[in-house]
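Technical note accompanying the year-one report. For the benefit of new consortium partners, we illustrate the data format agreed upon in the data management plan: each record pairs a sequence with a structure-token string. No post-processing was applied to the example shown here.
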Amino acid sequence: MTLHEKILIDGEWTNGSGSDRFDVINPATCEVFATVPKATREDVSNAVDAAEAAFSSWAGLTPFKRGEYLRKASEIAFSRAEEIARIMTQEQGKPFPEALGEVKKGAEILRYYAEEGERIYGRIIANAEGYLESRVIYQPMGVAAAISPWNYPIELLAWKLGGALASGCTSVCKLPSETPVSPLAFIKCILDAGVPKGVVNELTGAGSVVGPVLLRNPKVKKVAFTGSTAVGKQVLSDCAGTLKKVSLELGGSLPMIVCRDCDIEAAVAGAVRRSFRNMGQICIAINRIYVDREIYEPFLNKFAAAAKKLTIGNGLVKNCDLGPMCNKAGIDTVADHIADGVKKGARLLCGGKKPEGPEFEKGYFYEPSILADVNHTMKVMTEETFGPLAGVMPFETVDKAIRLANDTVYGLAAIVYTQSLVLAQRLALELNAGNVAINNVDAGVINAPYGGWKDSGFGHEHGPEGLYEYLYTKHVRVCYK
């Protein structure tokens, strides 16, 4: 059965002002399983108007009252987690357990910001004169636009909605065209929690239509975007005319440094997880691995052996480690990066092709792939592959490893494996990235700031920093004389 979804404007589920719709494809079968409306420019303007009309009353609520709505939405999302996760697996491809974990994470994020919203503290600043006092307070900005990607369609939307709603902002969400249905189901949880009409609005459709109208609208005061660096730069350009507050979480080319004194089994397990989870379709997926020459070959052998053990399949009907990629363009990029590396002298240790068997004939499946003996003339080491491919090269000195890791326009995250506290501290300070994980591969947690340097963007999500992205700072100077 094909699902026929609608968009949300001012508390009403509607087909929008136009008649055009587009298909949502199951990447495991290449079959259409849903359709959604193509929002028009009129729909975008109506959604922004609804959010602006709802702003005053929503901002006027206490943080505790807004927190009640978010807690209720979190509870509803938890209760519907399995249903929403099945939808996500159908449209995105990740195995059901991974999808279920993401839905629950989205629910946890709403609950976290419900509590964090109650901790928006101002401060009192002494003046030179005893009868003067300065107060710093924080106030919500207004309408916030949330533009989220397809690789984590609920979690990355929750980052934005949680911070915006807890701060007192209202929201217009532009959902990803590849995966609009599961975030729609997540937004329904917020609506069913009783959030007033207009506080949350949702649009589906072409970014080329929705984006410019949304981003250039002067009523939108804040934009949070996750996506590619190229599109992020266009987002920033579209926002410049109205001087909006913008936060951008963009592309990455994550380096992993494996030192000779590391726990090699832990390093291999981390490399497998962060290189291939979600088929490498993660902004902080490992692209580049630099291994001390002394343990280079043992690491390669263990890494390739572990990658070959990963199971692939349709995650809705099979218990597997990996599902398909989300679209064919991703497969083409991986294949291109492998061909480029092999042509320039790299060794293909595993993968490099679609898995064999009738169950893989129709979907966007690809084997986890490893290139060894790579260098920085190869695309795998200089571009974001965003697929199940990791390049591995040796280093002789830590100085060289740092230089290679920093040899990129990106700076989202980096990973280090070492048992030396001195070396861990040095690498944490000298690696040019917004997030550094040492002896683990989870560079982001909800209660700590997450954001990039350089071409990986600016601004933060997660933590109190993610909340303050939606707040104006105001200085109030009072004379008591």
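Partners are asked to follow this layout when depositing records. The radius of gyration is 23 Å.
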